[in-house]
């Protein structure tokens, strides 16, 4: 039987500025009345994202904790997840029982995915402003995250992107895994996202959900400047 004090741990990754913090705020706003939630943010040297989420007032301030990752935020969610695991487990212990802990990846330009040692499932976030063809380019997050978000659909007319095409390109790269076109101003899309999270928490609890590793990102250099 699952440990009742073990939450559903849900990662949120994706390129810088695609709306990860905003999506987490949206999910908390939609679900905090019906489930117990916590958030862990990863930032390079600051706790900017945690501050933003506390300022949004969607959860009690002590349910949002920051992990400062140093130079390589992708390392902290994939290769050495210790600091993040401690943050998640501390939240789970302090606020037991939590239903879900959202973990936001750090804002570096590499599109890292989470290790399954840290999260049970992960959302990968793209936005229409990144260009309509980004979904076609693939990569582990786009191809194999549990859920892909095409975010900021309200901006599509201004950036010349056709949302339906971007979504069908993304679906083509994902072998049947779900894609949601999202805007925080479109309540139907917010309800669809909240429904996916709700169903994922239930599948995790019933033991139906099996965490997968989307796979490593492409080879890259680690710069050690200090
Ligand atoms: N128009 C529009 N803007 C959005 C939406 N979601 C987020 N944004 C804006 O996009 C910008 C980036 O959002 P964040 O949530 O900070 O993105 P992030 O991915 O967490 O950014 P980093 O942590 O720096 O990687 C902000 O100016 C948000 O207000 C949306 O649905 N529509």
From TrEMBL:
Residue numbers binding GTP: 14-21
Assigned keywords, A-Z: Chaperone, Cytoplasm, GTP-binding, Nickel insertion, Nucleotide-binding
Top-level taxon: Bacteria
Residue ranges, compositional bias (Basic and acidic residues): 201-211
Residue span(s) of domain CobW/HypB/UreG nucleotide-binding: 11-179
Keyword Chaperone assigned: yes
Compartments it resides in: Cytoplasm
Location of region: Disordered: 201-226
Subunit structure of this chain's protein: Homodimer. UreD, UreF and UreG form a complex that acts as a GTP-hydrolysis-dependent molecular chaperone, activating the urease apoprotein by helping to assemble the nickel containing metallocenter of UreC. The UreE protein probably delivers the nickel.
Family listed: Belongs to the SIMIBI class G3E GTPase family. UreG subfamily.
Function: Facilitates the functional incorporation of the urease nickel metallocenter. This process requires GTP hydrolysis, probably effectuated by UreG.
Name of the protein this chain belongs to: Urease accessory protein UreG
Organism: Nocardioides bizhenqiangii
